[in-house]
Specification:
With 387 residues, the protein is an alpha+beta fold. The protein has helices at 4-18, 137-147, 178-186, 225-230, 244-252, 259-262, 274-283, 299-314, and strands at 25-28, 43-49, 52-57, 73-78, 84-89, 198-203, 207-212, 215-221, 351-356, 374-379. The chain contains 8 helices and 10 strands. Residues 93-193 and 361-370 have low confidence and may be disordered. Bound molecules: zinc ion.
Length: 387
């Protein structure tokens, strides 16, 4: 599940792939942006803010028209539960059999960081992931050879009689190469479960950055970023301007809230998702439903400092873990997803609970994005007993 650390890694990947490059073409598959085009603009920065991704673009190059919208723009996206950005290397056309060793190899899914070792695979059902997509290679090859050096212009696949839809069995199967992935995407051929989830594509000379299932895709003038996108967020736990005192102040301002809910409210502090909430509360022996003002002296600070530490430890890791560098085959978490199993500290069977996040919004205009209300958490009734 995407949390601040996933967003941080996604931004790092996008930054390395896009920053400084000119967008050759763009493709937004959300109704509001159906007619938008940011080609010709340079990607000037890729910035994570909490769980939001901001891709900043320069002013339109032919600003001679001074048309509205020619000013610098920010492409906003949010990973929510399933979103992910992937980067495909356009220079791999002549080498269709090899997975890209460069950009695509570094791509992450926005979900579990642990799937980062399946480069250029398309998000989809887990079944078949990592399996070579037998047969998928032929058309990919044909298209890439006619595609030449990865220039602009859609490669039209012409395989009379061939269904544009791949058999279900290949849904989510690994793509043989980044070039193939690009070609198939560019040719608008369904990639199993993949292509219909595409929401945004930015193509530069070298790469194609594709946002799968990303939410709240919007283009706003960069000068209005705060006002329209992220101004409401609390201190960013992975941001350069992280402000612990301010986060504590905001959390304390609503003393009657459950700590488990308050930690997830991005207006208090930005970047914590369910995994870090669950783990932080266990590690600090805190009952998830305890009121903020019922916590012992210093506990709130301890919790936030711990969350900050955990996110920082994980921000550059390919495998998210809260138990240190987990040896192979060992659990990565203390309690997350482990209800019904014995507590690793006291042996008591971990309970499953639900926590109501109904008050939380990911956006100042909540209607834009659905918020899941009840979230499942695992907790230890002994280590995290109510006071
Ligand atoms: Zn316990």
């Amino acid at each position: 599940m995407p949390e601040g650390d996933s967003v941080y890694r996604q931004c790092k990947m996008l930054r390395e792939a896009l920053e400084g490059a000119v967008v050759e073409s763009s493709d937004f598959r959300v109704p509001a942006l159906a007619t938008s085009d940011v080609s010709g603009r340079t990607v000037v920065a890729v910035v994570p803010r909490g769980k939001h991704i901001l891709i900043r673009l320069s002013a339109a190059p032919d600003a001679e028209e001074m048309r509205s919208g020619a000013e610098p723009l920010t492409l906003h996206s949010h990973l929510m539960m399933d979103g992910t950005w992937r980067v495909f290397d356009r220079a791999q056309n002549d080498d269709a059999g090899q997975p890209s060793g460069s950009l695509a190899g570094r791509s992450h899914t926005g979900g579990a960081a642990s799937t980062a070792n399946t480069p250029a695979s398309v998000p989809g059902p887990r079944s078949g992931a990592g399996r070579p997509a037998a047969g998928a290679r032929g058309p990919g090859r044909a298209a890439s050879s006619s595609g030449g050096g990865g220039g602009a212009g859609g490669v039209r696949r012409s395989r009379p009689g061939a269904s544009p839809y791949r058999p279900r069995a290949r849904a989510g199967g690994s793509v043989r190469s980044a070039a193939e992935a690009r070609t198939r995407i560019s040719a608008d051929v369904a990639i199993g479960q993949g292509s219909h989830t595409i929401r945004a594509i930015l193509r530069t000379q070298d790469v194609e950055a594709v946002g799968f299932d990303v939410k709240d895709v919007r283009l706003v003038p960069t000068r209005l970023e705060d006002q329209e996108l992220v101004g409401y967020l609390g201190p960013d736990i992975l941001g350069p301007d992280w402000d612990l005192e301010k986060a504590l102040e905001r959390l304390s301002a609503q003393p009657d809230r459950a700590i488990g809910t308050a930690l997830m409210d991005q207006r208090n502090l930005a970047g914590i998702g369910n995994v870090y909430r669950v783990e932080t509360l266990f590690m600090s022996r805190t009952n998830p439903w305890a009121r903020v003002d019922s916590l012992p002296e210093g506990k709130l600070r301890e919790i936030v400092v711990l969350a900050h530490k955990l996110l920082h430890l994980n921000k550059d890791r390919s495998m998210r873990s809260t138990v240190g560098q987990a040896p192979q085959g060992r659990p990565l978490f203390w309690t997350y997803g482990k209800d019904g199993q014995p507590c690793r500290r006291c042996g008591t069977v971990l309970k499953r609970g639900e926590i109501d996040d109904a008050l939380l919004t990911v956006d100042p205009a909540p209607s834009r994005t659905a918020v899941q209300h009840l979230r499942t958490i695992a907790w230890c009734p002994r280590c995290q007993a109510a006071e």
